[in-house]
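Page 47, continued from p. 46.
Same chain as before, 207 aa.
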Amino acid sequence: MASKTNEGSGASTNAAGMPANGLAEQLEVRSEEYLCYCQSTLPSAERHTTWSRLYAASQKLSQAVRENTVADMVLEIASNFMGCEEVAILRLDADYKQISFLSGVGVTGKHRHALQSHTEQLIAEIQRGQVRIVNNKVPGDELLASLGITGLIPLSQGHDAEGAIVFFNLLPQRQGFDSRDRELMGLLAIYVGPSLFAPQETSGRIR
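Result:
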């Protein structure tokens, strides 16, 4: 299933299958685009904040791709830019029957149990290939909400989902993800999968 993302710059770059150096260079080009948008937007405008966050995140991801530290950078971006310090990065096994944990922060035993007890349903949600901001009042979001998930980013390096970034509770000052977060999630959806699931895969851990 093709990954479906809504990323705010209007760019539609396909990062699948690209070597790490090429991926980093692609991110650097994108960060320059975001910088141009920042410079052409009034600092007082809400949109300026969005461009600024996308610029900073793409810069950080580019460096992480070169250093093979993408999983750690995802957790840093989630904390610093999205106000979420309970995040799991998952990988789907080849037969789409099991889920492994690549990395994470703030993931509790309750979180693990919830995910592993609903593996089949969760994999089906990931395979939909859609970036999700979960709302328990929206039909279709009931399962993810029941697992304590507030956001979901499917990850791939081609047509088929190979993993996901799963967000749980946000920091107390955040009432929920918004449209600015969705654009940042779109950026992660494009670039994190090719970085993590290429042959030189980044190994991670739950901490």
